[in-house]
Description:
- This protein is α/β, with parallel strands linked by helices.
- It is built from 11 helices and 9 strands.
- Strands 1-3-2-4-5-8-9 form a 7-stranded mixed β-sheet, sandwiched between helices.
- Mean pLDDT is about 90; it is low at about 1-10.
Amino acid sequence: MGLAPEHVPRYQVPMLNMIFHGTPTDRPPLLIVHGLYGSARNWGVIAKRLSDERQVIAVDLRNHGHSPWTSSHSYPEMADDLAEVIEANGGCMDVIGHSMGGKAAMMLALKYPKAVHRLLAADIAPVSYGHSQIQFIDAMRRVDLSSLTRRSDAESQLAEAGVDPALQSFFTQSLDIPNKRWRLNLDVLADQMHLVLSFPEDLSLQWSGDTLFLSGATSDYVTAAHRPQIKSMFPAARFAKIPGAGHWLHAEKPREFEAAARIFFNADFPLAR
């Protein structure tokens, strides 16, 4: 099923970088959308495991990884980018989006309702947040790229800037050491941080498809106070939490995250073939 012609966007940049796992099956393919400062590679283990039942496509969002760098970084634009990927790969997909990627996936469903079969929003709500992530851009900018010969060199410098060890490893996955650069458009991400933290406030948009808001039980990104806003946009939304997990629930509890995703996306199918 393709997008209705009136919903096909006018693409302004080349298509997002994609990493394919598995081959097409009778089930909808699965699109995985990473969060801020992440990449498709971050989801490699989970994507590979989930590809035993369906094809999985993980993407680098604009200004991340191997995808094009642009001068803007808004959710409507990210939704356009994702819609292009889906249109090029069958026209309708299940979607997992974490954090910023979850907001981009929500905007995708709202703006291109026929492109999404089911949506799993991982530890994020369609609301504006007050906490900034600019301190991590400052830390990455302080890394002396000219002196790097290995990822551990950058991790040491990030440690000196006060970055948590787990985030040191996460951030340095976006290092291009041979070319002495970050695969993150830090200048645009800093300039557009207000857009990353917000969410378009158009309450006339609504998507009635199956949606799971899966959160870490120790995270405060999705609270009871957010539910009215969530339900106004996603009336079929359901909620679940992974015990012992925080905001990085897929990294902290990968097996539990995988199990929850399988149950949600396979509801119309027998759990075993």
